[in-house]
Batch of 2 targets.
Target 1
Amino acid sequence: MLHIKCPHCGMRSQNEFSYGGDASVKRPELGKDISDQDWNNFVYNRKSLRGKHWELWQHLAGCRQWIKVERDTGSHEIFKTLKAEEEIS
Amino acid sequence: MTQSFRLKDIGLINRNKKLSFKFNGKKYYGYEGDSLASALIANGVHLIGRSFKYHRPRGFFGAGVDEPYAIVQLYRNGETEPNIKATEQELFDGLEATSVNCWPSVNFDIGAINNFLRIFLPAGFYYKTFMWPKSFWFKIYEPFIRKAAGLGTVSIKHDKERYEHKYEYCDLLIAGSGPSGLASAYAAAKNGARVILAEDKSRFGGTLLTSEVNIGNKSGKEWADGIISELKEMPNVTVKNRSQVFGYYDHNMLVMSERVSDHLPKTKDFHPKQRLWYIRAKEVLISSGSIERPIVFGNNDTPGVMLSSAAKEYMKVYGVLVGKNPLIFTNNDSGYETAIEFKKNGIDPLILDTRSNPKSEIINEAQDLDIKIKYSYVVVAAQGYKKVKSADIAKISDDKEQLGNIENVKCDCICVSGYWTPTIHLASQSGNKTKFNEEIDAFVPGKSKQNEKTLGAANGIYTLEETLKDSFKIGSEVSKKITNNENKVSFPNVVEKKSSIHDKFWCVPLPKGKNYKRFLDFQNDVAVSDIEIALREGYRSIEHVKRYTTLGMATDQGKTSNLNGLQLVSKIENKVVPAVGHTTFRPPYTPVSIGAIVGREVGKHSKPTRKSPMHSWHEKNNAVFVDAGVWLRPRYYKRGNEDLFEASKREAKNVRTNVGVCDVTTLGKIDIKGPDAAELLNRVYTNAWLKLPVGKARYGVMLREDGIVMDDGTTTRISENHYHMTTTTAQAANVLSHLEYYLQLVWPELNVNVVSSTEQWAGAAIAGPKSRNLLQKLFPNSDVSNEGLPFMGYMEGDLFGVKARIFRISFSGELAYEVNVESNNGNFMWEKIIEVGEQFEIQPYGTEALSTLRIEMGHVAGSELDGRTIPYDNSLEGLLSKKKDFIGKRSLIREAFTAEDRQKVVGVVPLDKKTSIPEGSHLVKDSKAPSPNPKLGYISASCWSVEYDNPFSLAILKDGKNMIGEKLFVMSPLKNKIIPVEIVSSHYVDPKGERVRS
Amino acid sequence: MQKYSVFSLIKNALSNHENWDLAWKDPTPKKEYDVVIIGGGGHGLATAYYLAKEHNITNVAIIEKGWIGGGNVGRNTTIIRSNYMYDENALFSEFGMNLWRKMSQDLNYNVMFSPRGIINLAHSDAQMNVYARRGNSMRLNGIDAVLLNREQVKEIIPMADFSENVRFPIFGGLMQPSAGTARHDAVAWGYARQADSMGVDIIQNCEVIGFDISAGKIKGIRTSRGEIKAKKIGLCVAGSTNILAEKLNMTLPIETHLLQACVSEPVKPVLDNVVTFGAGHFYISQSDKGEMVMGGDLDGYNSYAQRGNLPTLQHVLTEGIAMMPFLSKLKMLRTWGGIMDMSMDGSPIIDKTHIQGLYLNCGWCYGGFKATPASGWTFAHTIAQDRVHELNAGYSLNRFNTGHLLDEKGLGTKTWIS
C-alpha cells in the first residue's frame, strides 16, 4: 500500500486516495480551435513510461483535494507531491 | 502404541498435560506443546501421506514452515481444513487429522501405480500426449487427471470463523525472534523505539532453543527467555508469537498474519481465528534466520529421511526421537550437533561426512564421545519403501565424481545437512536485488531498497557472536536515528563452538547401472532426471525449467528445493549459479488464509448498504427492495398476492390517474456556491446556463471529454450564487470528483465551491394529475398554483413546521413535484404525504413503476446512458449549445458520431400489441437470416404501457430517425423469441409534454 | 521434428529420455530477415507460426528481451472465451475459438484446451438484461450462449452464495458453455516449437535498443546483440508497447497497468467452470492441479512493477468470498502480476502504422491470452499482405480519431478503472 504525502494533510495511506492519471495532460482552452491530432492527444494518447511519472490523485477520503504526485512507475518510489495549483517543475 | 519414541527428561513440552488426538482414525496421545508432527513421531508414525504425482510414501522432512510433505487434512470444531502442515499445527486435545492424496488408505494407495509407471511420466509428459482423439482431453483424460491432482479437500460449507484486521504503526518491525531478532529488538527497545517483534512459531528464541551455546553465563534458551520477558514488560514493545510476517509491500508496509486460535480446539466466542496486521514500519529488521539445505541422493524422499536440524529440534524442543538407529549425512559441522544430541540421549549415530579431513571443536567433541564417523562417505540411496530400513553408502572420491563399493548399513532414519540457506524472502520482496555469496553457496540480500536491513543467518552470518554483535549494533543505531536516544547495552560474553568450512557438495552421483530417483522438490515429485530432460529439450531459462518441471511450485514454495535446482542447472549448463539466476520472491512467504486477507467484510457486509431515512416505512409497507449500486430502493410495494408485474402496473396507473409518491433520496445531490457557479455549469453541461433565473430549475446533460454522455439531471438556482445539482444515483460520486477536478486543476480561476449534499436531503417525488391538490394541502401557506409554481419552478415551503424545498420537476412525465427536507425529517415528510394524500388516493410507487412511467414518456435513463452513447443517440441533441464550448464538445464532430445513419433512440411496439418484449433483445430486418445476422439495434428498456395497455419498449436503433414506421423483428435467441414489431416515436405518451406544464 | 505421441513417450522412456530433441533451437541472429517480430510472447510466437504456415514466410526472427513466454502469456488466468457484445470483438474471438479447438493437434503439443464453460453471474434483473443484450448478440453471431436463472446456476455451482446472508443475491447468469481454459505456458511453447521447426529463428535475451527508419520506411532494428535488418517489423510487446513506441516517437492510446492474480493451495476438484462475479470484478477457475486461479481488478495506477499491492488483492478476494464463501477457508499460495496495455476503449489494436513496414499489435487489456491464436493469425495476415484482414478491421489505431470505438464496458478513457 503506497504512502502518499498529501500536501494539505500529511502522510496518508493509499486507500484514502483515488487515482486520476497522467498529470502532464493539459486540457485545451475552451472555445479555441484545435487540430484533430491535438485533441486526440489530449483525450486518448499517453506516454505512460517506466520511471518518473507525474500523476494526479484525489484525497477522496480526506480533504478532497486533487494533488500532483511524482512517482516511479517501476519502483513506486514517490519523489514529490504538489498541490493542484502548483506547477510541475 | 504409547509414545515409544518419546525421550524422558528433555524438551519444552508440558508433560503434565496429556492430549489425545486421532490420525487416520487411530487414537494417539501427545503433550501440550507438541506439534502434530512431533506427537506422531513420538508414536512412531512416519507415513503421513502420498506424493503429488507418483504417490510415493511421504513422512516428515522438516520441523516447521519449510516442510514439503507432511500435509494433512485437519478436522477442528466441526469443520475441515485442507493442506495443513503437520509440522506447523500445534497439538490440541481432540485434534483429528487424516492423510491426503491417497486412496483407499495411506498404507495401501492405488495411485502408487504411478510410481511403477514413472519412467513414462517424466517432466512435461502431459504436453506430449493425451491429444488423441481430439475430444478425449476434456472428456476422459482431464477429469482423470483432475481427480488425481489436488491435495486435501475443501468443503463448500460457509466459513463460520471470524477474521480480523489491525492497522499498526511502529518505528521498527523485527521479523523473527532468533538471536538477531532478540538482540536488535532489545537494543532498539532500550533506546525507546516503538518495536514490534514477530515470531512465526509459538516459542520465541529460534535456534537458541536448540543450539548448545552460552550467552552471559546462561544457556541460549535461558538468555532468550530473559530478553523476551524483559521486552514484554516494556510499554514501547509489542511481542507477538504465532505471527508470520509474510509480505513486504511498498513504502515499508508489511503484512503479518497472527494465528490467534488455530492452536485451540475451537475459537473462543468473539475471538478471531486469525488476525491480519497491516504494519507501516519506519525501519524493518529482517531476522528470519536460515533453512537447512538437503543433499540430494537416491530415494531421498523415503519417510525417515529428514533435515538434521529437524531431528535435533524434535529432540530438544519436543523430546522426541526421529529414529533409534540414526544415520547422519552431512557436508558441514551442523550434522555433528545432531549426532551429539542423539548420543547424549543414549542413541548411537553413524556420521557420514562428505569431507575428507575436517577439523573443528565440534568434530573433536563428537570423536571424544566415540561417535562413529566415516569421512569422504555419502549416502547413495535410502532403502525401504514406507520407512527407511537401511542405506546404501559408499566412499566418494575427492573430485566427488567416483563412488567406491556400495555398502549397506542398517538405519531407521537419515538426517541430512547440506549447509544453510538464508531466508531472504522478505528482503527480496522489498525490492532488494540479492547477490550470491560464494562462501556459503547461497543468495544473501544486496543493497537495501526500502528501509530494511537483514541480520544474522538471514544475512549469511552463521556465528552467534558475530550475529549478536551485529544485531545489537544495528538495533541500536537504527533506533537512535528515530528516537535520538542512546542507552548503551552491554554486550554479553558468548561461548560457542567454532565450525570448520562446509563442503560445497549437494548431489550424490548415480552409481553405474542404477536409476534411483533423486528428488529436488519433494511435494511435486521433481527429480534430477526431470531437470535434465527440461534442459535437454531446450527449456533452459530457469523460469522455463521451473514451469516445465513444476520445481518449487508446491505449497512449500521451494524452500528446500530452489537452491539445489539452481545448482543442478548451473552444473549442466556450465554456468555459475548467479548467472542462472533465481526467481524473485513474491508474497506470501507462506500460504495465508484467504479469510484473513479479507477480514470482516463478508456476507451482508461485503459491501456497505445505504438506506434512505424512509427505509423502515418502506419495510413496514411491504416494499420489495432492489439494489441500486449500494443503495436499497423499493422496487414495488406488494399488495396481497401481487407479483412485480401487477404491482408495478397498479402503481404506475395510479400515478397516471391519481397521485403517487416515490422515494428519490438516493439521487446524488451537490451543493454549488460561488459567484462563478453559473459559469461552471455552463462549461460542464451541454446547454446554456448563464441566464437561468433564481427560483428556476433546468435539465442538463454532461459529457465526458470523449463526447460520451456521463450523466444527466436537474440543477436549480436557489439564490444568486447558490445552485442545487442532482445527479443519477449511480454517478453521484463520479460527478462530484469530476467537478472538483475541473475546479481545482483546470479552471482554478473560477470562484466556486462544491460539496455533496446527498445525505443531507431526503427526497419524495409526488407525481400525477392530483399532485397539485395534494401539494396545496401539504403547503397551505404557499402558492403552488401553475402560476405560483410553474413547470421547472422552485420555492421553499413550510411542511407542518418543517422547512422544505419544492421543485416542480418531472421524471414520470406527469404533473409532478419533488419535495426535499433535511434527512432527519424525511420520515416525517413521507408519513405526512401519505396521510394527507389518502384523500387523493395516493399510493407509493417503486423503481419498477418509475421505469414504466419514464419509458412510455421516452425519457432516457441508465439503460440508454450506458457509457457508450452520445447526446444524439438519446435524442438529446437539442440540448447541445452551438454558441458555447463545453466539456466533450470537440469529440462530437468525429466521423462516426456524425454519420447520417447514426443510432438513435426510438419506440418499439409489437404488432400484436400483446407480446412483451424482453430487454436485451436485438432488432433485425430478417429473422431467418443466417448468422451472423446483422443487428440494427437493441431493446434498452421495456414496459407495459399503462396509458395504452400494451407493451412498449425503447430501443437504440441504427438510423433511428428514418426508421419510424418501419416493421422489424425483435429477436431474443436466449429466450427463443421472435417478435414482429413496429418502430414508433420514443415519445409514446403525451409527445408534446403538455401534462408536466398543466 | 520429433512427433509427440504416447508412442514417442514410451520409446523415449525406454532410452531413458536421453533422445528428446530440442523443442526450439537457440540460434545466433542473422544479419537480415524478411520479417522480424519483436516480442516472444504468445502473440509474437503465434504470429511467426502463422506467417510460416499460412503465408509461407519463414525467413522470420522473433526477438525476445528475456525468455519466451515470460510476459502475459505466462502470467494470466488462462481463460478462453468469445462472449463479447460488439461484432468486431465477437467474430474475432469466435474465429479464435475455432483455432483453440484444434490447437493441440495443429501444434502437436497438448495445450489442454478445456471447454469447461464460463458463467457470468448477475445480481439484479437489470444486470440480467444487460447480459441478455450481450448473450443475444452472441447468439445472432453464431456463438453459444445460455441465460441461466437462479435455480439453474445453483445446480451448476452450488458453492456460490445462495444463502440469506448475502449482500448481492444471485439472480442468474450468462453462460458460454464452449468457453474454457488452457495451459498457458504450453501455448507459448507449442507455437515456439512449430515455428522453430518451420525455420523461424527464436532469439532470446536480445533487447531492442532502437529502430532504423528512413524516408518513412522501416529498415531494421538495433539490438543488444547487434543490428538486424528487416523488410517488415511487427511490434508485439503488450506491457512494453509504450516503451518501444517512445523509441519510434509515437504516442499511443494506451496506458500501462498492473493486473494481479493469485492461486490458492491445490485441493481436490470442487469447481468445474470458470465463474465471474457480477457485483464487482472477480473471476475464478480451478486448475487441473487443483489450485483456485483467481483475479480481478487492476492495481489502479500506472505501473511497470511485476509486484502488486495487497489492498487490491484484498478487494478482489473480498468479492471472491462474497461470491463463494467457502473460499475463505483456502490459503493463498502464490501471487503475481502482469503488465497490461490498457487501451482507451478496452479493445486491442492490430494495424499498420504511418511507418511503412511497421505493424502494431497491442492494447490487449486483460484479454490477451484468449486472443493468442486469432491475434497471431490476423497479425500474420496484416504483415504478409500489408493490409488488415476483415477480422481485425475494427482494431484500427485510427478508430480513436473517427469515433468507431469498441467500448464493451462503457468505461471510457479511465484505463485504471476496471
Note: Chain C touches chain B through 123 residues (CB under 8 Å).
Target 2
Amino acid sequence: MADRPVKQPKGYSVRTLPGFAVLALFTFFALYAPITILVAYSFNAGTSLAIWEGFSLRWYYQAAANEAVQDAAIRSLYLAFSAATIATIAATMAALATTRTRHFPGKTMIYALINQPLMVPEIVTAVALLIVFAAVKVWTGHTSMIYLIAAHTAFCVPFAYLPIRARLETMDTSLEAAAQDLYASPWMTFRRVTLPLMWPGIVAGLMLAFVISLDDVVITEFVKSAGQDTLPTYMLGQLRRVVTPEVNAISTVILVAGAILVTLFFRLTSRRG
Amino acid sequence: MSEMGATPYPPGELEREARAADTRRRWLLSLPALVIIIFAAAGPLLVMVVYSFLTPGDYGNVKWQFSLEGWTNTIVQRDIFDDTLIWADAHLSIFWRSLSLSLITTLLTLIFGVPTAWFIATQPPGKREFWLFLVTVPFWTNLLVRTIAIQELIRSEGVINLVLLKLGIIDAPLQMMFTDFAIGFGMTYVYLPLMVLPVYAAVDKLDFRLVEAAHDLYASRWTAFRRVILPLIKPGIIAGSILVFIPCLGAYVTPRVLGGGKNLMFGNLIELQFGQGRNWPLGAALSLMLMVAVMVALIWYVRVTSREQADGR
Amino acid sequence: MKKLAIAATALAFTATGALAQELNIYNWGNYTNPKLIEKFEAETGIKVTITDYDSNDTALAKVKAGGHGFDIVVPSASYVPIWVGEGLLAETRPDQMENFKNVDPVWVNVDWDPGRKYTVPWQWGTTGVVVNTKYYDGDIDTSAIFMDPPDELKGKINVVPEMGDVMGLAIMYYGGKPCTDDKELLKKVRDGLVAAKQHWLGMDYGNIEKFAKEDLWAGVNWNGSTFRMRLQNENIKYGYPKEGYVVWMDSVGVLKDAQNMDEAKAFQNFIMDPENAALISEFARYANGITGSEAFMPEDMKTAREIQIPAELKDKGVFIPTCAPETQALYTRIWTDLQK
C-alpha cells in the first residue's frame, strides 16, 4: 500500500539515508548477541549460567520434569496473549475515536486516561490493585486468573494505543474518501480500506503489548492468587537464591516456538496482502 | 489534517446535533479501553490518593488518621539527628538521577531505533513484518535471563573485553559491570522496541513522493531528512519517546540489576517506602507527584499537537 | 471476550469447591525442595501448590489484604511477631504435635514464638561476609571487610541490599545492639556506611556467578549462598564478623483464614521429621533446626564452614528482633541517605 511505484534514477534511492542501514544492522546484532549467549548456555552441562562445562541437554530434561516452571511459562504466555489481544482491540477502537477529528469535548481526558497506566511506577499500581482486588476477591470469593488478565490488559492499552494512533495520524485519508464516494458502506470502508491501512500499526501495538505483558513482574506479584506464578515471578524468587540454566532452556523453547508460530502467521497473512 | 468524512451540514441546529452525535459515538468507541483502565489501573489509584493523606501504619499499610506528612516529607524532612528542618535532598537527587538517565536512554533509543525503523520500513513489502518481528523476538525471553546474558557480555572477562583486548584497543579489562554505562546499555536494550515499533508505523506510511520532491528541489539527503521526513514521522517519534521515557522514570529492575543497585532510582525509592521502609503515605505521595508531573507534560503536548493540527500544519 | 472469561475461569486455580485434599504454600522463591513436596504428596495424598514471594513485606501486605487463597507462609523471625500481632497466624500448637520432639531445644523457646505455639522451624542461616582469599588473605572474620575495606578489596565489594541485615551488621560493628535508637551511635553508623560505600561496586542480590567468576571479590552475603559460590570457586571463604553477625530463621506458620487447616497442620508436623527436614536443607543449603536431620544430609554440609559455625565465634551471632516502628523509620532514612 505504501509502495507506490516511484520512478528513480538508477542507483539513487530516496529511501536510502547514509549510515542508517549500518546503524540498523548493528542494532540487530546488538539485540541478538545476548540472546545467542542465552541459547548457548541452555546447552551447558554445568550448573552455572556463565562457566561452560560442555554440551548437554540436561536442563531441557530438567525443565521437562519441572512442572512448576512449565506451568509458569504456559501461564505467562496465556496471560500475555489474552491481555495483549483484548488491549489491542480496545486500543484500536479508542485510537479510531481520538484521531483525525476536531477537538471534541473530553478528548484530552480520554487521552490522559488511556495513557495513565504509563505514568505511575508499577509498584504503586501494584499496591493499589492489591488493596482493591483483594476486597473484590473476598467479596465474591472468586480468585481466578481474570484479575491478572484485567490488570495486564489495563497497562497494555497505552502500549497498543500509541503506535496505532501514530499510524492513524500519518495516514492518508483520500482512499477512505474515495471508497465512500464509491458508495461503500461505512463498515465496508472500514474493513476494506481503513483496517488494512491501519494494520501495521495494529501489529506493532499487539507485539508491544504482548512483550510488555510477558515481562511484567511487580503487578503480577501483587495481584496473583495461590498457584498463579508466571515465569517472571518465578524468576524473581530465584533471583535472591540462585538462577539455574533451566530457565534458559524454557526461554529457548518459548523463543523457538514463538519464532515458528509468527513466521507461519506472516507467511499466511502476507500472501493475502 | 483534513476532517475525514466530514459531510457539509447546513449551519445551525443540525450541525450542532451532528457534532453531539459524533462526540457521543467517539466516547462510545473509547469506552472499552476506558472501562478496563478505570477498573484495573486508574480507579484503584484513588486508594493511593486517600492513603497519601494518612499516617503510616506500624508495620506497613496505614492508620486511618489524617496527616499531611506524606506530602510535606517529599520536599522537606526533619533531620534525624538534630531535628532541624532540611530539604529532602535524597529524594531530589534520586529524582534527578532518574530523570537524566531516562533522557539519555530516550536519546539512545532514538539514535538506534529510528534508523532501525527506517530500515525495516524500506524493506520490500511482506518482509517488513518479519523484520519487525525480529525486533521483538529477544523480548520473548525473560527480562532477568536477558539481563544475565547482557552481564555476560560486559563482565571483566566477557565477550566485549575479550574482543577489545584481542584487537589491542585496550590493555586492561574495562570495568563496565555495575556502572552507569551498563544501565544505559541495558535500558536502551530493553526499551528499544518501544521506540522502533511506533516509528516504524509512521515511516511505513510515509509518502515518498514528498521526499522525492525535496530531492528534485536539490535538497541534500540530510536536508530532506530534516525538513521533510522528520516532520512527517514526528507523531511516531513522539509516541516512541513517550513509551520509552515514562516507563524509564519508574523503572527499577534493569537499573538495579545492571547498575548494581548502589544508587536508588525513583522507582526503587517508592518501592522502598512500600516495602522495608513501611511508609506507605510517603510512597503514595511520591508516586502521585511523579504522576502529576508526567501528566501535565503530556497534556501540554496534546494541546500543542492538536493546535498544530488545527493550524493545518 | 466472554469466551475468554470462561476459559480464564476454567484454567484458573480456585481454592473454593475443591474436592481433593489440597494445600497452598506461599514461600520464598526457589526455597522448597520438589522432592520434599513429592514425598509429602505421596504419603498424604494431598495435592500441593507452591506460590513464590520475594520479600517479607510483599508477603505480609498480600496476606493482610485478604483473598489470597494461601494456607501456609514462611516468614522470617523478625516478622513472625508482626504476623501474630496482626492476627494473621493460626495457633496450631506445633508444640503438641507428634514430631515436635525432634526440634532442637535451642529453637524451642525463641523470642519470636516462645514455646512454638504458632510456627515450626524451616531453615536458619547467617548473614556475614564473603571474601575471595586469592585477593586478600588477612582476617576475614570482621565487618571491616565492607565497613573499612582493605585496599586490595576496594572497588570489588558487593553488599546485599537487605536493610535489616546490613543495618544490624553496621550497628554491631560500632558496638551497638540491633534495633538501637541511640542517635549518637546511629550517626556514626550512617557516616561510616556513607564513607564505606565509595569502595563498594554494587548493592545487589543473586551474585553467585559474579563471585565465582571473580568479578566481585568480597562483600556481605548469606551463608548458604556463599556455600554455593565456594562449590564453583574454592578461593571463596565465608567470614563470621567477630563484632557480631546476623542469625536469622524462617519458620512455617499456618494462616488463620486457611481453607485447608488440617492439611496445613499435617505439613507442619511432616517437616519436623528429621528425614524430611534434611530434604529442605539439601536443596537450599541452610541448616534446619531439627535434631537428627544431619544423618540424612549431604556429606559436604557436615563439615562446611558456612554451615558449622567455628566454636570461638558461636556466641557472636545475634538475632535481629522486630524493631519499633519509630526505629524502623530512622533506619529507612539512613538507608535512603546511603543510596541517594
Note: The interface with chain B takes residues 55, 57-58, 60-61, 64, 82, 85-86, 155, 158, 161, 163-164, 183, 186-187, 197, 200-204, 209-210, 213-215, 325, 328-330, 332-337, 339-340 of chain C (CB under 8 Å).
